[in-house]
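Practice set, problem 2.
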Amino acid sequence: MQYLENFPERVYKSMLIPIMMEDKRAGEASRKGFYKYEDKRKATPDPEIMTYIQKSRSMAGVTPDAELMKLSDKDIVEMVFFPVINEACRVLDEGIAVKASDLDIASIFGMGFPPYRGGVMLWGDSIGAKYIHGKLQEWAKRYGSFFEPCSYLAERAAKGIPLSAPAASQVKSRL
């Protein structure tokens, strides 16, 4: 919540989860969420979720973009995680974290990033800062400043420096 209050331009606050929680759609614990849970924990997509999605969209004043509705799985993953990598770069640049590997561990244990990918920064390195920066720039032009790449990412993309490489002047943690 503090992050949302301090950096509203860096997040999208969806009303979907609060609306679902209001209706006690807490997932497996309540046997309904995005999925319905039958016997033996078997999850199946719940068609009722569209009602909640439409209500959330209405509250936000947005309509589905036909182009976005056709995105491939790869494009969806990139649109979700490239802003996470961008924010991780800001965290390193601001000295909130000192090493990219700290953010890899945090992404695995804190947000459930797949361990076999090595963490969000290592995964970003496998894709390349230049590609990530290019995609974020493209989306910023098309969809707004939420996707605007930070200077740390821009510098690494321009110079071909891996995201996980230590900064030239390694900052000390502010924490």
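Problem 2, part (b): a different protein.
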Amino acid sequence: ALTKSISALGAMGMRMKHTLPDLPYDYNALEPYISADIMKLHHSKHHQTYVNNLNVAEEKLAEAMEKKDVNKIIQLQAAIRFNGGGHLNHSIFWETLSPQGGGEPQDGALKDLILEEFVTFDALKKALTEASVGVQGSGWGWLGYDKAAHSLRVVTCANQDPLLATTGLYPLFGIDVWEHAYYLQYKNVRPDYVNAIWHIIDWKSVTERFKAAL
């Protein structure tokens, strides 16, 4: 019976492996704001590496838990946080960009809350841009939703720390400011890259994320 249970768990683990999500557009679709070369490298190499490493870490975690190896379980948390965060963050990033993006939310509760908290859309744009540009080293700038307070917050996370697990805020939209997200095209001029992102934000997708958070 024990052998069957372990086999069942193993089969479940195989079914639950994380996979790289398909992009909802071609690699060249976001040009001229993000080049096809960057998109291909960022998605097929960097994001894929996070997925691969997350699967490996989770397999090791399952083994450690089976053996009740508490030291190993603790040791694996950093790899799961980093690679799991990388997978979560990039999955949100791809789905909230669009070649038909840009502009600002046109109607609905998200637009109302933006105006209530920031007064103007440009004030939100300025706050998130400055926060993202100001990240020291690698990380993300986020527009997050605080469900308890029913408020929007602009925050940053270091490295690949996932917003929800790190802050309790629901991630609506994030700007990846790791150099691999822009260096091939923008070199070390991060502000130009962050400003370009506003032309391809898919506010329809961001609004759907906000509705889900509610």
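Answer key, part (b): The CA atoms of residues 183 and 189 lie 8 Å apart. Confidence is low (pLDDT under 50) at residues 1-15.
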